[in-house]
Design goal:
alpha/beta; 2 domains; 37% helix; single chain; 357 residues; seven-stranded mixed β-sheet; 12 helices
Length: 357
């Protein structure tokens, strides 16, 4: 009799465990930590009133992405693999040395997968035409290509990927840009020189991006290229454990984890104008009473997040746009004296897709 009761308890517990993820969807919502948009609940009918023939397929996808405690279960699996095998649970993340993490989309640049000479020439020629168009609108252009993290810190990459390529697409493109007299900041040289002179890190260990110090160093060169006075210091800061690292959160969702950030207070106040939800908004506008008399239009990607507070406090008026491909019609329709085009190294090919009005 006791064995029979024990068996029923075992069966009951098994079914409860099986039902928790699905029934839990009625009251539990997972925290979104992935760098993608999860699917919404599917509709029975299409917009034209016909039956959605993919309803059950879409429902299956929805359930797989939204079942209760999904993030917690992924985190548990990731921690187990990471602690025991030192392997990531998600192919987007490369586990490096001493706890460093890298984005897998940068591996092509790191290992030296090259664009053709014709493609490099095409991108450089397009940037030359882009800058000519901006200048023709009476505004000053500048191009900034931010190096991938493993371009600056190759020593923390796993040994299985070998040494960083001696010649990269970024180097080749910047060489052609010099020949064509395209105005740009050599961020690779700026950050590499700074790394050799100081022990402070310029990128986050568990994130794709640079930290505030790296951003400020490049901003100093940007301002110099625009002929603006004033430089940001990089020594007067406090360290706060306040940054949520994206690569860590891909591997270990549903947990609070923060990385150290260098926090500077320059005393330059600014305000956001219009609706502003986060630094990831497609459009952000700022004004500053403490700023200079210049206005600036910034085309940017996620690396531009670190630039926004500093540029916002420097210029009387600033507009930041994140949508891609970059829309050059904004140059004519936006009040600005300067135009900054910023993009990360792994996406430099996208610069060849900018359309000129």
């Amino acid at each position: 009799m006791k064995k029979k009761i024990g068996l029923w308890i075992y069966v009951l517990m098994f079914w409860i465990l099986c039902m928790v993820p699905s029934t839990g969807m009625l009251f539990y919502r997972n925290k979104l930590t992935e760098n993608r948009i999860l699917s919404g609940y599917p509709a029975f009918l299409e917009e034209d009133g016909t039956w959605n023939t993919k309803y059950f397929e879409e429902l299956q996808t929805y359930a797989a992405e939204h079942f209760a405690f999904r993030s917690e279960l992924i985190r548990a699996e990731s921690l187990l693999k990471f602690r025991l095998l030192r392997t990531p649970c998600d192919d987007q993340v490369v586990i490096g040395r001493e706890g460093w993490m890298f984005f897998d989309e940068t591996l092509g640049d790191y290992t030296g997968i090259r664009l053709s000479d014709a493609e490099i020439d095409r991108i450089a020629a397009r940037l030359c035409a882009v800058c000519s168009y901006i200048s023709g609108q009476g505004k000053e252009p500048l191009i900034v290509i931010v190096p991938n993290k493993n371009s600056i810190y190759p020593e923390y990459m796993p040994a299985r990927f070998g040494k960083k390529a001696g010649v990269t697409n970024l180097m080749l493109l910047q060489e052609r840009m010099r020949e064509m007299k395209v105005p740009f900041v050599d961020t690779y040289k700026v950050l590499l020189d700074a790394k050799e002179q100081d022990d402070s890190f310029l990128y986050f260990r568990e994130d794709t991006h640079w930290n505030n110090t790296g951003a400020r160093l490049v901003l100093n060169e940007i301002y110099a290229a625009f002929g603006l006075s004033g430089q940001y210091g990089i020594t007067d800061y406090v360290v706060e454990k306040s940054h949520e690292p994206d690569l860590y959160n891909i591997l270990f969702p549903a947990g609070e984890h923060f990385e150290s950030q260098y926090v500077y207070d320059d005393g330059r106040e600014f305000e956001y104008t219009g609706r502003m939800h986060s630094l990831d908004d497609m459009k952000i506008c700022t004004t500053s009473k403490d700023g200079n008399e210049k206005s600036i239009l910034v085309y940017r990607d996620s690396f531009g997040r670190a630039l926004i507070p500093y540029i916002g406090g420097t210029f009387r008026q600033a507009a930041f746009y994140r949508s891609t491909p970059y829309d050059l019609s904004l140059v004519e329709n936006t009040e600005c004296d300067l135009v900054l085009i910023e993009i990360v190294e792994r996406n430099l090919k996208d610069l060849g897709d900018i359309e000129i009005p």
